[in-house]
Amino acid sequence: MVQKYQSPVRVYKHPFELVMAAYERRFPTCHLIPMFVASDVMEEETSEDGANQRIERRCALDVDAPRLLKRIAGVDYVYFIQKNTMNRKERTLHIESHNETFSNRVIIHETCCYSVHPENEEWTCFEQTASLDIKSFFGFESTVEKIAMKQYASSINKGKEIIEYYLKELQDEGITHVPRWTSSSCSLPPPRPTRQPHLFCFCVADKLDADYIKRYLGDLTPLQESCLIRLRKWLQETHKGKIPKDEHILRFLRARDFNIDKAREFLCQSLTWRKQHQVDYLLEKWSSPQVLQDYYTGGWHHHDRDGRPLYILRLGQMDTKGLVRALGEESLLRHVLSINEEGLRRCEENTKVFGRPISCWTCLVDLEGLNMRHLWRPGVKALLRIIEVVEANYPETLGRLLILRAPRVFPVLWTLVSPFIDENTRKKFLIYAGNDYQGPGGLVDYIDKEIIPDFLGGECMCEVPEGGLVPKSMYRTAEEVETEDIRLWTETIYQSASIFKGAPHELLIEIIDASSVITWDFDVCKGDVVFNIYHSKRAPQPPRKDASGAHGITSPVVNNVQLIDKSWTLGQDYSMVESPLTCKEGESVQGSHITRWPGFYILQWKFHNMAACSATNLPRVDDVLATLQVSSHKCKVMYYTEVLGSEDFRTLPSLGNSVNPTFSLQSAPVLSLTTPSSSSFLHSVFFL
């Protein structure tokens, strides 16, 4: 497997020329890098005007590896070829390096670039990318990979430190300025006025600054930074427009231990869910029913000692049965989602207020009054439903859970949830029985005394409702609750469809007026698909729905419609009006087509078949592996279409220029309960 690394943009607050003077002091060897034992200049050339210079070096590294491995490999040093290309006029240095030793077994490639800061020409930026591909190494492939990644991460950490060391050395020698390159035939243009750069991404390509990462996201290892940058870059390429905030992407990476492939799949499912159910607008559009405002015993209350938003839930005082009977599952789910959305907003706000990264919140749960009524079966069912959604879309948002005044019935609840909690997450939970929370090691260790709620013996008034029993007059019938649940769950402008090998999904649009505009917005939730648009003068036969048949589809929720009759001939009965567009799993696509004729237009999503190798007519290995990952040759899309009159059309892109649209923070709803991450599980338990 190829290991890749992508650095954030690291900024030196010194001019490019001074940084280059510091950089040159690293050669021929550097005492700050013990394994860098020697370097020899193999080739050097400079342009006549001195603006361009190219240097090729052969560098020897004493890799810190087990002696046995070195003896098996038969080498003492590992040699690399480094090629530096300096452009003093443009003020850039490009560095490329690759391994010479074992190049037929191991492929290491690294590129680096020093350049002028785009917003302050007195500062210098540094970026770095690298890849490692171990093809074979005497049966020690895994060991060599671990050694290489460990040493590379260590050298990355020391990189900026080394340049800063030599900059200070220059300063101690009285060298604080190095003149820019000039030529007798060209005068230097006047310097641009400098201004302080934004802490947010400053580059045209919207790259991340290392200082921004530390200020807003926290201390990450180099490899964690790389995972964040690579996943963010992938989102920029496939979901052009609005992408999730960096702290949101980081939560999903942490939830999957920075496995970028697993995190990408996890995040894309959540993004689709957010988009389908318009969760980004929940705080603006959702208004909690009055019964929730009166009887839901939870609310936000200042912050803890670490600056995390504090949510208080008086679970023992909550009538969970009454709330479920009066509202149904969906209203409760929406309310819990609004709590999580507000929590994300407060974390972002507190990050700015306290000047340090705050990405999660603290939940204080008062269990006084908890009894067997809270384990009512429909209430538990609603809880599991909420757990599914919260666990899938709000990972790594619970920082600490304080459980106070746990009664005798609490072990029953703990027995239900503890199997879902791993050892690391249990460290987030602190459980106090009786009044133990009032003593040493209690609440005051985590919450300032001034904001401890009055009902816990503090002096701060808490606006969390006291709860009580929901009047039975507010209960709804089962039919009313079901109708409301269906209304809330299906309240979306998007439709879902399944695509199978040999069974595309097709959508019919009738156009009366030529020059109308067909617009679309769809997300590829699973598998790869090909998107086509066809035109026919005659109406297709009534749609055929592949409800079971060859593909074994038995669920009534499956949407798969075919309109084009197999007897039709392309070019005679119908024609293709746009070139086919191949869309990969996870991509989001927007586009439009201006119609030239009235008639019937068919939008088609079909299974993407593997392309064969031109020489052998055999499928490529990568395509075979990708196909094996799509179970039963099934793909899924979520789509929305609209027809506009030409006068209403405002420069929407055509299919040929389809763009990937706005992906806010969005996942097809989770319908099967898997073992949830324990922080999200308990988080959901105590929100309900």
From TrEMBL:
GO MF terms here are: RIG-I binding
- Record SMART domains: CRAL_TRIO_N (SM01100), SEC14 (SM00516)
> The PRELI/MSF1 domain covers which part of the protein?
3-175
Domain called GOLD: residue spans: 490-643
GO terms under cellular component? cytosol
Gene Ontology biological process: negative regulation of RIG-I signaling pathway
Record Gene3D superfamilies: CRAL-TRIO lipid binding domain, GOLD domain
Q: Name all CRAL-TRIO domain ranges.
A: 288-464
InterPro entries membership: CRAL-TRIO_dom, CRAL-TRIO_dom_sf, CRAL/TRIO_N_dom, CRAL/TRIO_N_dom_sf, GOLD_dom, GOLD_dom_sf, PRELI/MSF1_dom, SEC14/CRAL-TRIO_domain
- This chain belongs to the protein called SEC14 like lipid binding 1
This protein's species is Scophthalmus maximus (Turbot)
- Which gene is annotated as encoding this protein in its UniProt record? si:dkey-237i9.1
